[in-house]
Amino acid sequence: MIDRDQIRKLSPVDGDIFTLPADTPYELVEQLGEAITIAKPGIKVIVICADLRQADESLMNAAGWYRK
Predict the structure, then answer these.
(1) DSSP-assigned letter for residue 59
(2) What percentage of residues in the chain have a pLDDT greater than 70?
(3) For residues 18-33, average pLDDT
């Protein structure tokens, strides 16, 4: 169930990265992706389910993320 107090307006743009808690059910991740696609057809964003605070640099490099 979604806590209505935590709902915020999103205005996604190309290149945005959305992070969700690692325990987010896959169905909710899909629903977010679909909602973004409906709101902004053709937009390219990334949705991540993970606690990025726990990701070290080598893990992020293996996933194709590099620091500039």
Answers:
(1) H
(2) 93
(3) 90
Does pTM surpass 0.85? no
Partner residues linked to 17 by β-bridges: 46
Terminal Cα distance for the chain, rounded: 38
| Contacts (Cβ under 8 Å, ≥6 apart) of 44 | 14, 15
Q: Please, what's the b/e burial string for 6-19 (b: 16 or more CB within 10 A of its CB; e: otherwise)?
A: eeeeeebeeeeeee
Alpha-carbon span 49 to 47, nearest angstrom: 7
The tokens describing 44, both together, are: 């390219």
Q: What is the DSSP letter of 37?
A: H
pLDDT at 67: 61
- Separation CA 57–CA 3 (nearest Å): 33
Token code pair at residue 11? 């205005």
